[in-house]
Amino acid sequence: MTLTVLDPGGLTLVQDLGRPGYAGLGVTESGAADRRSLRRANRLLGNDDGAPALETTLGGLVLRAEETVVVALAGAPAPIEVVAGGGSTRTGGPVLRLPAGAELRLGVPEWGMRTYLALPQGVLTGRTLGSASYDTLAALGPPPLQAGDVLQAGAGEAVIATVEAEAPGWHGAPYMLDLLPGPRRDWFTDGALTALFAEPYTVTDLGDRVGVRLHGAGLERARRGELASEGVVRGAVQVPADGQPLIFGPDHPVTGGYPVIGVLTDDAADASGQLRPGGQIRFRRRGDW
Amino acid sequence: MSAAVLRPSGERAVLVELDSLTAAHALSASILAAELPGVLDVVPAARTVLVTVHRADQLSRVATRLQQLAREPGDAAPEPATAAIPVVYDGADLAEVARLTSLSTAEVIARHSAATYTADFLGFAPGFAYLSGLDQSLHVPRLDSPRTAVPAGAVAIAGEYSAVYPRTSPGGWHLIGHTDTVMFDPAADPPARLQAGMRVRFEAVR
Questions:
Q1: What is the pLDDT of residues A74-99, one digit of tens each?
Q2: Cis omega before residue A245 (within 30°)?
Q3: Which of A91, A189, A223, A266 has the greatest number of beta carbons closer than 10 A?
């Protein structure tokens, strides 16, 4: 199965579930920013959960099917237009059959940042350290898609499967993100912990796969001094000296030198992959603070 | 070994805090040697080891084992391997480092290549090792404004550390030389030339 990229939109990457096991060498896990939506798109086609798929940001992606192909979409609900035989159809997905020569055009989603598009048996591409993910910070893996790129998918017949409904609550306002205590919560005052959960935070436009900066109540430290660099995880909420938290994404550096006040649950970390600038979030206390 | 404090780091990770770099490297080595079931990633750093597991339900069992490993004497820690890295001392900031340190460029080169370094931890980029052991007289601040592109193989210093940039990347350290040694190759095993805990020497080739 072959598809041609006519327009990659803002940013379209190949992503799977990443390359764990190399963080000690300075290689972060990377992988889909919203792993739940990647899994869902793959399950719709009967693929392995972590088969390489396309992660496209805020619409704009245009693909042409060179042969008849079935694709599945999940994540941010981008309007779908299929142009074929001189006509154009708007469709809702999530699974659609593109006849040979048809163009698939994704518009800007109503909510969320990233739409996942799965192809039968996944995108066939080279692996770096076991993964087809592109790590934007380390520049490992297949580079971002460009117009003219040709995508290869598996030749087999797609098995269209029934999967659970899209996870609810991701597009409410504000997003609720479940937060567990972080390794350095004791670096912060009681007032900072209260503010962290009491106040909504606004998603700034300083956000990418490395991290998302938030703007809201400043989080005051209970102690001074510098923290020696230490390992951090995806979903860690780190607080730089200016007191404004940031959420580490899939391409975060493997170590950080600012204290981590809390860590998102895995589900909340996936939801954070859909945060859009200008949106609001609230942290919800989970675990023993 | 020594007292370890376990600090939670989300559903699938725990940060083990130790009292020294040596203890962190020893624990990291014993975790890898023990091949604990469920362990996905081990990240040694200056005074900590971050341990990530595959599934949340494996974390408490792994945490118990980490406490045990941290209490065991570190007698199994082998002598760390030493890497020799040949350096041509022709960096763009060599003269500036000499000026900042009131040394001659020859003396900067002599002091940089005389020391034995320890790879404290890797980060910033794949294969980028923070090498401690830099001569006190060569501790210089970072550049006021980072370069947008530091060439691969650049040998650099900043603060108490020296490092080699594995590939072209932005960077704010002072560049004093370059090496042709490949620091990171995804096709190699292991992919990184340096690992945390290793000893490193820079050899002046001219």
A1: 999 999 999 998 888 888 778 999 99
A2: no
A3: A266
